[in-house]
Amino acid sequence: MTDSHRSAFGEHGGESGGFIERTFRERIVLAGVTIPPATEEDTDAGLDELEALVDTAGADVIDRVVQRRQTPDPATYIGRGKADELRDAAEAADCDTVVFDDELSPAQQRNLEKILGRTAIDRTAVILDIFGQNASSQEGKAQVELAQLRYRLPRLRRGKTASLSQQRGGGAARFGGGETKLEVDRRRIVRRIHKLEAELRDVASHRETQRKQAKRSRTQSVAIVGYTNAGKSTLLNRLTDSGVLVEDRLFATLDATTRRLQLPGGEAVLLTDTVGFVRKLPHQLVEAFRSTLQVAADADLLVHVVDASAADPIAQMHAVRDVLVEIGAADVPELLCFNKADAAPEAKRLVDRHPGSVRVSALTGEGIEDLLIAVGDRLRAQTDLVELHVPYARGDVLAEVHREGEVLSETAGPDGVTVRARLDPAGAARLQAWASPSE
Do 414 and 335 fall into the same domain? Predict the structure, then answer.
């Protein structure tokens, strides 16, 4: 592929994490492999989603090739015979790039490009490309660039990957001490990775300080999680009038947004929108976004938004839960929220199959009140109902009870006030000295 006709996916990005400007929409052929226990239906669903990802990245799918194998071929993933067939299909489609639905090893990618005579990339590269296009904040850009560089480093090879200076529009690299261009590229990328890791450690430290302050304030936190394009940002806007950008495209939101939300019972909680998940979410992205995703692991409750109109909402739910396991949030209580009820009659059946879940339309507002009530009920279920006897002289203790939890009733007595309140376990332990004898 010449410099005047570069792949939108294959050779983008430099030290700045930017992408080569697209002057055309690439023609893409998709390749999928069915490996047991996966079924052909699973492969088709994966390729459908990959096609949506490719479209989001700014390219057009012209054809798709599928294969069934017992195990991946170590050299080419699909085997030499199928690779030759794929080359013929790519030539017939006059495609620029072949995109595989599974991650290729650096060696498999090299071997395939030799056989195909064109760029071969995988699903991970496409997702990294989309994240690179959508990152807007300084932190988001750093996270995406780190993921891109970790992915690119083992794939550097002589005569194929443009140097970082060239990718940024610089002139020819100057080498010293007999270094090859490949060695210079590798050293630059490693140095840049270390710099980004240090920057993101500082961000993670700042986030940790914020989390500790939130814990001290006793304000409960709720994280909105879900598959990409499930309607999480629309829901946040509906609940908090936050004005977060909403687009009907995959991974439109990469930066966590936190807003204060008042529940029907009067409690205030911190509500955070998070980056959307997807099947086979690249490990590099999960690692790079770990500090951002930590908000889900630290939450008191997860509102898991599911697109009820999706072709396979259950598979999307499983994909989200797989990522939650990876980031250490598997044990956080979950409230299933089936969204897009206005466009999906299926939502009622999904709610019936998942007791305790709710159905809403973040777009029209249908079911929002039920969602808020359910959030309040779930959070209160995590607290202890206690009865305290506070002497009139200890107004400071009474103030602390109001600060720490939800006061349900106050009854004046001859020597003090009897208070019934809901407190989290830590707050209940601190106020144990004032518990009524029956407690």
Answer: no
Does residue 149 lie within any of the structural domains?
A: no
Q: How far apart are CA 42 and CA 37, in angstroms?
A: 10
Q: Supply the range of the domain harboring residue 397.
A: 383-434
- Give the tokens for residue 227: 């598959």
Q: How far is CA 3 from the centre of its chain?
A: 33
* Residue 386 to residue 432: CA distance in whole angstroms: 9
The CATH number assigned to the domain holding 34 equals 3.40.50.11060
The per-residue pLDDT string of the chain (439 residues; one tens digit each, 9 = 90 and over) reads: 333 333 445 444 433 333 334 557 899 999 999 999 999 999 999 999 999 999 999 999 999 999 999 999 999 999 999 999 999 999 999 999 999 999 999 999 999 999 999 999 999 999 999 988 888 888 889 999 999 999 999 998 765 443 333 333 333 333 344 568 888 999 999 999 999 999 999 988 887 887 777 666 668 899 999 999 899 989 999 999 876 656 666 776 677 788 999 999 888 899 999 888 998 888 888 888 887 788 899 999 999 999 999 999 999 999 999 999 999 999 999 999 999 999 998 899 999 999 999 999 999 999 999 999 999 999 988 887 889 999 999 999 998 888 777 788 899 999 999 999 888 777 888 888 888 876 5
Rounded to two decimals, the pTM is 0.79
In this structure, are 234 and 355 located in the same domain?
A: yes
Q: Are 147 and 126 in contact (CB under 8 A)?
A: no
User: At residue 322, what are phi and psi to the nearest 5 degrees?
Assistant: -60, -40
Cα(314)–Cα(15) distance, integer angstroms = 39
Looking at the fold, whether 270 and 123 belong to one and the same domain comes out as: no
- Provide φ and ψ at 180, rounded to 5°: -85, 160
Other Cβ atoms less than 10 A from the Cβ of 173: the count is: 15
Buried b vs exposed e over 31-58: b needs ≥16 C-beta within 10 Å? bbbbeeeeeeebbebbbebbbbbbebbb
In this structure, the answer to whether residues 69 and 34 fall within a common structural domain is yes
- Which of 136, 160, 193 is where one domain is finished? 136
Domain count along the chain: 3
Judgement on whether residues 107 and 228 belong to the same structural domain of the protein? no
> Smallest Cα–Cα separation from 275: which of 247, 259, 254, 245?
254
Residue 57 lies in a domain: yes
Residues 358, 308, single domain; the answer is: yes
Both 261 and 129 in one domain: the answer is no
Give CA–CA dist 215/209, Å, rounded.
10
CA–CA gap between residue 96 and residue 118 (Å, rounded): 7
Q: Are residues 308 and 403 in the same domain?
A: no
